[in-house]
Amino acid sequence: MPTDKVKVRFAPSPTGLLHVGNARTALLNYLFARKAGGQFILRIDDTDAARSTKEFEDAIYRDLGWLGLAHDMADRQANRLAKYSLAFYKLQASGHIYPAYETEAELERQRGLLKARRLPPIYNRAALDPATRAKWEAEGRKPHWRFKLSRTKIRWADLVRGPVEIDTATMSDPVLVREDGAFLYTLPSVADDIDMGISHVVRGEDHVTNTAAQIEIFAALGGPIPVFAHFPLLVGAGGEALSKRLGSLSLQQLREEGIEPQAVCAYLAKIGTSDAVAPMLSLADLALDFDFAKIGRAPAHFDPEELAALNAKTLHAMPHAMVAGRTTVSEAVWDAIQPNLSKLSDAADLALLVSGPVTPVIEDAALAASAIATLPPEPWNEDTWPLWTKAVAAATGAKGKGLYHPLRLALTGRGDGPELKKLLPLIGRAKVLARLKGETA
User: Fold this and answer.
1) pLDDT given for residue 115 in this prediction
2) Residue 382: what pLDDT?
3) What letter does residue 248 receive in the DSSP assignment?
4) What is the rounded CA–CA span in Å between residue 138 and residue 150?
5) Contact at 8 Å (CB) between 17 and 249?
6) What pLDDT sits at residue 3?
7) What pairs with residue 227 in β-bridges?
8) What residue ranges define each of the domains in the chain, with the CATH number in brackets?
9) Please, which residues have CB within 8 angstroms of residue 138's CB and are 6 or more apart in sequence?
10) Torsion over CA of 260, 263, 265 and 267, rounded to 10 degrees?
């Protein structure tokens, strides 16, 4: 398909916060569209009026904006109900849907009987029997509407899974409209894909079976059938099913925990692929790297600790310009403390090592006194630290940890931290001298 024809959609329901699973769906759609020079559509699936809220809809826009996933067009399914009614009437006129009247309790009993006989729990199409239908209608029952599957084998070439074949004889006829007239997910989704010209449907492999029924609905409505790509779902670090807590890990939670959006995007784009997980600061670079052929068939392992490590590496790779609006730390201080950051919030604490006040820890008074005596005059640069410590070593005989650890404690009040060759010129001679004397400065 020509790249100018590529159009994909992300269709979240505003019934909760975006979590890492559906964020990955949005991201893969976005990267594919951007690489192809196509369009990324945001479609709010709010046909479930009872559970959909404006608060969650606003959160979807906020979270996608945080990730940098800019959409080319947006719409809400609640605005498009007339289109779904037209699609319904078209299916009704062509005989592709039929009314069914069973209650949920009756359907559950039917499934139980089939299970007891070790048969698949497939709807028995009792509603197609005229006498049975007349009986139910006489009882005043309101129908739900089912799509009548062809009960044939449906095949498609999946961009991730390769050739796929699903026999719709193994499936129940899907319910498209409930007794109260509300549309369920399937019909609005297909109708929208046709109306919006969606060329590719990129989603999790839990939709593979649904795809067979949807292909039949596309054909029944006379619409072009999109190209499908079903990627494996996320699992835990050890291959276990994601826990409820981790499975619902929201983007809002990651943001509040100090995870950078660039780290989230790089991680979700690379896990489960043949590429290494590594910092990538640009969505454009991620899009350039994107290829369905790189996505493996095994589930993608989501490890919060691996994401946290990638977050640190991402910060270590960021130029000061990328964080200047979110921190008061100067570029020079950023350069000194950057390799020691795990989260951006660490920057303010580490910057205090320069600006103070720092309460020094004098572990070796004699060594501190020799350090004062050998402290060179300013101006200082990164060569000052190695030259100075060489002079202290010559005067005291100290070396290794016995030399560097007491000096770090005296200058920073802590046993670890940024390289002192970078910190020393920023701290300045006056503060260094005061701290070596044990004074808070």
Assistant:
1) 87
2) 96
3) T
4) 29
5) no
6) 42
7) 200
8) 3-74+189-231 (3.40.50.620), 83-177 (3.90.800.10), 244-322 (1.10.1160.10), 355-436 (1.10.10.350)
9) none
10) -150
How is residue 263 written in tokens? 């780290």
**DSSP secondary-structure letter at 277?**
P
Residue carrying the six token digits 């826990």: 243
CA distance 208 to 211: 5
203-239 pLDDT, tens per residue?
Answer: 999 999 999 999 999 999 999 999 999 999 988 777 7
Q: How many CB atoms lie within 10 A of CB 357?
A: 12
Q: What's residue 84's pLDDT?
A: 97
Q: Cα separation of 410 and 94, whole Å?
A: 85
User: DSSP letter string over 69-124?
Assistant: ---SEEEEGGG-HHHHHHHHHHHHHTT-EEEE---HHHHHHHHHHHHHTT------
What is the reported pLDDT for 243?
A: 60
- Give pLDDT < 70 ranges for the chain: 1-4, 242-248
Burial class (CB in 10 A: 0-12, 13-18, 19+), 385: buried
What are the start-end ranges of the H helices in 274-400? 283-289, 304-317, 331-337, 346-355, 365-374, 384-396
Give pLDDT, residue 352: 97
* Tokens 């991201």, located at residue: 27
Measured CA to CA, the distance from residue 302 to residue 300 in angstroms comes to 6
398 in Cβ contact with 367 (< 8 Å): yes
Cis? peptide before 379, omega within 30° of 0: yes
Output phi, psi for 47, to 5 deg.
-70, -20
The Cα 100–Cα 143 span in angstroms is: 5
Round to whole Å and give the CA distance between 252 and 16.
11
DSSP state of 142: P
Residue 207: closest CA among 234, 228, 190: 228
Cβ count near 3 (within 10 Å)? 10
CB 173 within 8 A of CB 99: no
pLDDT of residue 289: 96
- Tokens, residue 419: 């390289």
Q: What's the pLDDT score for residue 1? A: 37
* pLDDT score recorded for residue 238: 77
Structure tokens at 250: 């929201």
